[in-house]
Amino acid sequence: MRIHEFANIFKDCEIVGEKIIIKSNLAKTINFIKNDYGFNMLKDITAVDNQENGIELIYRMYSTENEEEVVISITVNGETESISKIFDSAMADEKEIYDLFGINFIGNDELERLYMPESWEGNPLRKDYEEKDERLNWNE
Amino acid sequence: MNEASLLKLNLGPQHPSTHGVLRLILELDGEKILSCKPDVGYLHRGMEKMAEKLSYIQYLPLVDRIDYLAGFFYSELLCRTVENALEIELSERVKIIRTIMLELNRIASHLLWIGAFLMDLGAVSPFFYTFREREIILKYFEKITGQRMMNNYFVFGGVRRDLFDTKDIEEFLSILPSKIKDYEKIIDRNPIFIQRTKNKGILDPETAINGGITGVNLRASGINFDLRKTDYLYKDYDFTPIVLDGKDAYSRYRARVLELSESSKIIKQALEKLKQNTELRQAPVKPIGFKLPEGEYYSQIEAPRGLASCYIKSTREEKPYRLKWRTGSYYSVNLLRKILKGTYLNDAIAIAGSLDIILPEVDK
Fold first, then answer.
1. A42 at the B interface (CB within 8 A)?
2. Over 60: is that where the pLDDT of B150 sits?
3. What integer best gives the mean pLDDT of chain B?
4. Cβ–Cβ contact A49 with B under 8 A
5. What is the pLDDT of residue A36?
6. B196 in any annotated domain
7. Which of residues 47 through 76 in chain B touch A, CB cutoff 8 A?
8. Following CA atoms A46, A51, A54, A55 in sequence, which dihedral angle do they give, to the nearest 10 degrees?
9. Helix, strand or coil for residue B301?
């Protein structure tokens, strides 16, 4: 497993289970793992709202040649670097996370409302999201 | 290039060839596509938001609706993730039943795609032929699960009812090869079909992998990436993933046709195992009041439209703290921006159709 190899290279990281938790240099790290280690597929980006601990982004990368997976995690607050120039598929995930979590990916210029209408307020998957639709109170 | 000669064309969301509600905003110069922007979200139901408000057992019937043509796969994913978390070992019989149902579902899904794809290209009759065969599978699903689609058959730790009758399926498997031969006779060497699909929508392996394309579409570009090879449900079965290197719409069609016989091979082996298996059906997890241990759980499966995965973060409550779906079609739609650039408008439908996009899966 490569995971400990990575731990030696990225000084500023922590390994929890199968996850490599980094603190900064997201695009640089992803680019390095992709080009130098052949992790050529980004399976998906998962966002988790940990409330006061910020929003965690989990990048699941896969190598079709070696059939290995590596999981990178970073906790962000409102904005982070975009990796849509490195992976085409990241464009899809970043758009979704922008819409549902309100995270601004710097360098991605196609961010806009995806699932929710243009006029929608708030980001539905955030834990502090309030449902304002009065139709939800139909039984009161 | 004269700015004034450019045309912005809105394709969909009500276009019959977009298989639902896909909207593409195309910029055209004559008939050449200069840029394509997919607009999705017309079918958004908030699948991930609903998960956070419902207990696992309440959420289970909803997940079939993520992809109504391959509902079993999403049920299996949710069940699998929860079973991993609760460390439930499935009985051999349950595993066999699940494999049979999943592969039948894959055949049904591919059959529908073949019909609908040919319909997109203007050939009406193959649609009826493939639907005729698909009907047998749906009838069988109805007999076993009570529903034709969105079956809600898998439950945590087992299946809802035992698989009591397999005669219909044996019959179906015995006629399938001759039906596949029929499809090949009408479709494969049809000059119009060949002209419209050969060398159209070329997806070279690097672009495909970079764009997150998985499943049959990736295998038709020459990459051997089939999760079934490492899946615990399939580990005792003998089959070979279909890998073609045509990279175009035609080989994506061929790959799906070949996968029909590969899936039926798996079902045949599974039926053989089922006959020898005399276990009783495993009792599922008690439906009320179970909580997942704290932690993060992830599982994946080879769905008909590519890699599908489910991520659950649990904080030891009855409801998931966060549940995320990864679906194959969403990445295909995203990559349309790249593939359609530089092609012609009359190929756009053929190319988009060949990727097997289904919109409820995209919009979640």
1. yes
2. yes
3. 87
4. yes
5. 83
6. yes
7. 48-49, 52
8. 10
9. strand
Closest to B113 (Cα-Cα) out of B265, B341, B364, B306? B306
pLDDT at B105 (0 to 100):
92
Q: Return the residue of A nearest to B327 by Cα.
A: A44
Phi, psi at B194, each rounded to 5°? -65, -45
Q: Is the pLDDT of residue B17 over 80?
A: no
Q: Whole domain around residue B255: which residue ranges?
A: 45-363
Say if residue B106's pLDDT is above 90. Answer: yes
Phi-psi region of B122 (alpha: psi -120 to 50; beta: other; left: phi over 0): left
pLDDT at B274 over 80: yes
Is residue B342, in this structure, part of any structural domain at all? yes
- The Cα B26–Cα B344 span in angstroms is 11
| Residue numbers in B near A100 (CB within 8 A) | 48
Comparing A83-87, B287-291, B315-319, which segment has the lowest mean pLDDT? Answer: B287-291
Is it the case that residue B233 has pLDDT exceeding 90? no
| Nearest-by-Cβ selection for A44 from B44, B207, B309 | B309
Pairing of strands B295-303, B154-155: unpaired
Distance separating alpha carbons of residues B68 and B109, to the nearest angstrom: 9
Interface contact B311, partner A, CB < 8 A: yes
Of A42, A48, A116, the CB nearest to B212: A42
Domain range for A74 is 3-124
Q: What percent of chain B has pLDDT above 90?
A: 27
Which CATH number belongs to the domain containing residue A15 in this structure? 3.30.460.80
The percentage of chain A sitting over the pLDDT mark of 70, rounded to a whole number, equals 96
CA distance B225 to chain A (A): 7
ipTM of the complex: 0.88
The two tokens of residue B83 are: 């079973």
The encoded tokens of residue B104 equal 């039948």
What does the alpha-carbon distance between residue B78 and residue B299 come to, in Å, rounded to a whole number? 8
Please state, for a pLDDT cut of 90, what percent of chain A lies above it: 13
What would the pLDDT profile of B162-177 be if each residue is shown by its tens digit? 887 888 899 999 999 9
Query: Is A50 a member of any domain?
Result: yes
A33 close contact with B: CB closer than 8 A: no
Classified as helix, coil or strand, A44 is strand
Query: Are the C-beta atoms of residues A79 and A103 closer than 8 Å to each other?
Result: yes
Residue B287, pLDDT score: 64
When divided into structural domains, chain A yields a total of: 1
Q: Is B309 on the interface with A (CB under 8 A)?
A: yes
A131 in a domain, yes or no? Answer: no
> What does the block give as tokens for A138?
């139909």
